[in-house]
Design a protein that fits this description.
Distance between the termini: 38 Å
Number of strands: 0
Low-confidence stretches: none
Shape: globular
Helix content: 55-70%
Mean pLDDT: 96
Structural class: mainly alpha
Order of helices and strands: HHHHHHHHHH
Length: 254
């Protein structure tokens, strides 16, 4: 592997790890606040799945960079512009309906993404994708069932998920943006061509939206920038809270 390919692969791992970590942190905010005990536990378990995925991708990035960095270095000692997570992952939880909309849109994307990535020519990425896909399959089923239940429920529950769709749809375009990193790795059979995922993702969204009696938004301006480390105002606040302890006490251990 040449230096440029290695650099691209490190960035690719950070993108995947960052999205998982940031959304895991968001879902962790539900701990103790779920609408029912069972769902409180379910959201926390999904959060742990995502944080586990982040740890795996960060560990691989550290090995590729070969500078002695650990998963904690990537998670706690990078600033906002050094994060490459998808913008939808950093959006606030809102109410339970909005959280389920965000989870469904992201999990549907991850399902098709990891299904493709497990065919990567990079054996490590393929193995991580295969493991992640098992978890994401549950995340998708869980969020789909809740979206349908809420969308086809009461007038109030329908309004809340419809509002969630209206608020979050503008961030879905960011999931399919590709740059030079993607192009270089796709050429070597390492990365996923996101163009090939868009139609299956849209079909899945339409399928679930129809059951949930939700309308697919049209002519929405898409907010993008995650590939360049450009984020909404929410990420900085999330990182401040998440990174406060390790930055205040570097090297601290439980």
């Amino acid at each position: 592997m040449n230096a440029n390919q290695n650099k691209s692969l490190i960035n690719y791992c950070l993108r995947l790890g960052d999205s998982s970590l940031v959304l895991g942190q968001r879902l962790g905010e539900w701990c103790g606040h779920g609408p029912i005990l069972e769902e409180d536990i379910a959201l926390t378990n999904i959060s742990l799945d995502l944080i586990g995925q982040a740890r795996a991708f960060y560990t691989y990035a550290g090995e590729l960079e070969n500078k002695g960095k650990t998963e904690d270095d990537y998670a706690f000692f990078r600033d906002e512009r050094e994060y490459y997570n998808l913008l939808i992952c950093e959006q606030p939880n809102g109410d339970f309906g909005q959280t389920m909309v965000r989870q469904f849109l992201y999990s549907a994307f991850c399902y098709y993404f990891y299904s493709a990535l497990k065919k990567s020519s990079d054996a490590r990425l393929a193995a991580l994708a295969d493991k992640s896909l098992k978890e994401v399959t549950y995340h998708l089923r869980h969020s789909s069932e809740w979206l349908i239940r809420l969308g086809d429920g009461t007038a109030e529950s329908h309004r809340r998920v419809a509002d969630g769709v209206a608020d979050l749809w503008c961030f879905t375009g960011d999931m399919f943006v590709m740059d030079d990193v993607d192009s270089a790795l796709i050429k070597d059979g390492i990365a996923v061509d996101l163009n090939a995922l868009k139609m299956p993702w849209e079909n899945k969204v339409k399928e679930v939206f129809q059951l949930a009696k939700l309308s697919l938004p049209e002519n929405v301006f898409m907010i993008q920038g995650s590939r360049d480390g450009k984020h909404t105002e929410h990420l900085g606040h999330l990182l401040t809270e998440m990174q406060a302890l390790p930055r205040a006490f570097p090297g601290a251990q439980w």
